[in-house]
Amino acid sequence: MTTTDHPEQTSGSTGSVSGAEIVLSDVVKRYPGQKVAAVDGLSLTIPAGEIVMFVGPSGCGKTTSLKMINRLIEPTSGTITIDGVDIRKQSENELRRRIGYVIQGGSLFPHMTVERNIAVVPRLLGWDSGRIHDRVTELLDLVGLDPDRYRGRYPKELSGGQQQRVGVARGLAADPPVILMDEPFGAVDPITRQRLQDELLSIQRELGKTIVCVTHDIDEAIKLGDRILILREGAQVAQYDTPETVLSAPADDFVADFVGAGSSLKALTLARVGEVELRQTVTARVGEPVEEVKRRAEAAGENCVVVLDERGRPVGWPFLRQLRGTTIVRPDGDLVDVDVRATLNDALDTMLSSSHGGAVVTGDRDQFVGVIDFAAVTDHVRALEAER
Length: 388
Ligand code: ADP
Ligand code: MG
What we know:
Number of strands: 16
Bound molecules: adenosine-5'-diphosphate, magnesium ion
Shape: globular
CATH superfamily of the largest domain: P-loop containing nucleotide triphosphate hydrolases
Number of domains: 3
Strand content: 15-25%
Largest sheet: 6 strands, mixed
Helix content: 25-40%
């Protein structure tokens, strides 16, 4: 990560909280001409530094509730405070600095480069160009895009998943304590969605923001949320609880139907790769002589090695036989990897696509952590069942 001399920009160490508490008190939104209120008296406390997921059927008032937090929509009545301060008492600039906003597809400006897109709010706030440049570098790195390669591109030169990453970077640009997201990963394919979700969890762990995220996908809510808010029509709270409690003790039939019966697949959505006993294996550096690597692997009884780049990130996972005929270890495209924060459900999906019967596990900043295999998952699930 790029170092910076702007104290308000330094994000605390891993696990610290830089987020702010949000409190909604009896918030009502009645659109003109609407008989029933879209949001009919919502009261809710969103703790600082947590991810709260809003879920519920279409039209139940999720987006309206979210947009009232950054005053894109004004409540008809009720109050909303951020760290105890009424949002109506804050200037527009103040709110923009304090609340990042990410929506589906990233909604980038097509005529602006990635850098300009990310810098929209910092420019509004009058940051100088050096500070903006450093911040864009830092953010692209954080969301997993090579800064040099992508900062000058236009949105149409990016894939959907990359556009979404830039959208997340833009939401984080002014280092806001609060980030609002409305179905941010709805428009990307399942594998990219899984990666972006893992990325978000990783960012959250590093930065400790308060994140409020709307989704219609209960599995996404279970995976990402510290808490889940399940709404019925009129933004009436059906249940507001941890994913574990929502799954194991749904408040009523509406919630039970919505989350689906507590199948064992759902339990796999609750467990993370990092909770499983990972296997250590032989690693090799790009550029190392193949002969040495083979000797190490054979001595350890391994038939494949994890290839790491100069920053300790896995770039390949060749079988030893695939190294035959080469003298120097090269990055090999055949990498099957999952994030340490991925759910076991996601990990199984990934592992099933792998001839290794497993996956390479990466942690913060894509560092190599270990290897997960089917046996480890099975053992973990058995242990969980034994606990119950
Ligand atoms: P969700 O995000 O949960 O799908 P919304 O917050 O978008 O729900 O909408 C809640 C209710 O308010 C719906 O009945 C919707 O039709 C209505 N609604 C949303 N936006 C407007 C608007 N601008 N004008 C009138 N009614 C609206
Ligand atoms: Mg919506």
